[in-house]
Amino acid sequence: MNSYISKILFVCITLVFVGCSDQIKEVVLEDSNKPNIILFVSDDHGLDALGAYGNPIIKTPNLDNLASEGTKFTNAYCTSASCAASRSVILSGQFGHATGSYGHVHDYHHFSTYDTIKSLPVLLEKAGYETARIGKYHVAPEKVYHFNTVLEADPRNTVEMAEASSGVLNSDKPFFLYFCTDDPHRGHPFTPDPWDAPNSFGNKKEGYKDVETVTYKPEDVIVPEFLPDTKQSREEIAQYYQSISRIDQGFGKLMKMLQETGKADNTIVIYISDNGMAFPGAKTTVYEPGIKLPCIIKDPSKKVKGATNNAMISWVDLTPTILDMAKVDYNKAAFHGKSFNEVIDEENPEGWNEVYASHTFHEITMYYPMRVVRHDNYKLIWNIAYRLEYPFASDLWAASTWQATYRANEEYFGPKKVKDYLFRPEFELFDLSKDPKEVNNLATNKDFDEVLENMKTRMKHFQSKTKDPWMIMWSHDASLQGSGVNL
């Protein structure tokens, strides 16, 4: 009897061992097929300053080459034109009003993501990825946005950052590299002396090690339509361009290093910015220059090259998209965004005609909640605190571009009146196909009452779906307030 049982046990153990061996081989094989992913995020880079998006003056050959080898999105949006708030969405797949990431995470703000959130790097690490970050972080707490490896380099020198990433590029495991520059954010000091001196945008007279200094003449730059065409604007834009050309060189260095590892054919590269250019009318606003951004994706598994995609996508879609790319199973209901991985190689995919934005704070002293829905060509902005004066970020207020208008008591700042920029109506409704500058507010036009109500309904549905606490401001509806007990 014992001999018989022993034989049975031997057979069972053998079968289990063989089954486990096959399972292990299958997992290893699956891991070996997982792509590497590089998410390259610049700081305050708008659509206005990239060759691939139509600027003939700025020199961005490496980013332009990425577009020629992949897909360029023309309707890509961040959800909040503020650095920390935007980055929390990029890495969580949820709007900041639902995660506690209301604004900057500077120590005196204490804005911080709820510790129950499972972020992109944590989910990828769990799936077997080597996760690494370098450069600007600006999210909290670290345990929510944890990366296996933290690399150190000057975040203004993208060539140095690329070189510091060598170990990750040569990882034995599939890797996720979160590469975040400080360029082209405005540089310190924010307040110039004299007042009309252009900000440096991180540029230095002595330049940066191993980086060619590329300069621009103010008379040659292209002034975006939302800005006044002044001496001060042009001088600052020239500095902004220089900072972007530094980004491009570091990006080129990183791509060259990737090619040398032999992994380029299995590495997805994504280039985005956190929000629009750091000029009044863009950054910290929900107007198009603040939230409509570059997005270039090269996925070697896709057949298209040099493609243009007109789908409306949002940074809230990035986490589920990257998980899809990484072949990681995930709960779709855990995210507010949805994966656009399957439509990257399409030009006009169906069902991608609506995006939302949600801004509450930049600095804690800048309370000005705004909610946005764009559906097809219509865009509705709800300025929830419209009775307040629109608050200025300190670096934008001190900018010579703004001060030239303010000190001269000019009536207009670009195409908008200064008083309309500082004091906004409760609702702003635009038809972007006819009014891309967003100057003709249709919200008070009786001919558009039906459109306005339709857009309000879409906005309320979005707020309800994403548990936006500011939904209470519609009709003092307290249904989202809960019990008041912190569970």
UniProtKB/TrEMBL annotation:
Keywords: Calcium, Hydrolase, Metal-binding. Its EC number is 3.1.6.6. GO terms for molecular function: arylsulfatase activity; choline-sulfatase activity; metal ion binding. The keyword Metal-binding applies. Residues 35-327 form the Sulfatase N-terminal domain. It holds the Pfam family Sulfatase. InterPro entries: Alkaline_phosphatase_core_sf (IPR017850), Sulfatase (IPR050738), Sulfatase_CS (IPR024607), Sulfatase_N (IPR000917). The keyword Calcium applies. Belongs to the sulfatase family. This is Choline-sulfatase. It comes from Algibacter lectus.
